Amino acid sequence: MLTLFEAARQCLEAAAIDDKIASTHAHAAAFARGELPIPSDAPPPEPIRMPGRPPRPRLVHPRELPRRGLGSDPGRAAFVHSIAHIEFNAVDLAWDAVYRFRGMPAAFYADWVRIADDEARHFTMLRARLQALGHDYGDFDAHNGLWEMCEKTAHDGMERMALVPRVLEARGLDVTPGMIVKLRAAGDEHTAGALETILHEEIAHVAAGSRWFRWFCEQRRVDPEPKFRELLAQYARAVLHGPFNMEARGAAGFSVEELEALLQAAETP
Description:
The protein is mainly alpha-helical and 269 residues long. It has helices at 4-13, 17-32, 73-100, 106-132, 145-152, 157-169, 171-185, 189-220, 224-236, 246-251, 256-267.
């Protein structure tokens, strides 16, 4: 019988798109049935430099990605591809949290297995929209920023929870409402509807990051607000851009002090 850690490793190593998504759904369902035990004596995780990836998309620096408007089918396809790429990466990020951090409460693993399953479903929704626009995942260049932050925080669960779900993934809470408005203005109700579903569910994902960040802080007797501010200054100032969706971030577990820290960090040159 596979353990949960072995199942997570399988999903991380799967390189083909369909294999990663199918393995994610299958292992999430098995975990929900109680078929993937969480061993208390598991050895430390082995290093993962890069998860399994398909040969495309080509990964480039974010500055090399062209800006495209949403007023044309190619522009919308490029936009959908960029969001699909985030969701595909988010599958690996969730499984890495499961695989990487040992000795956590069972609820931690339940959260991140569920999130991996959600992200795989989000990717499938967006890939279907991409195919309806005459393209497929891999047709456009993409960047590797999410996994790079995953590597930077692999040594510390508190930093991972603070910076991946609460900074990088939470960026979607800020920008998605405006994208939905633009898509509807362009007559693309199908993509707008998919993004509305994703936005609603991503609030719960970011909230899981908030919950476990605070759990780590409590275990270490650290005040979460100053610690979050410190981590923003250390790692994330370059990727913070306003405006911020204060309502969604509040629903996702950000305190008033943390929202103020985001605003200050984004304004600091």
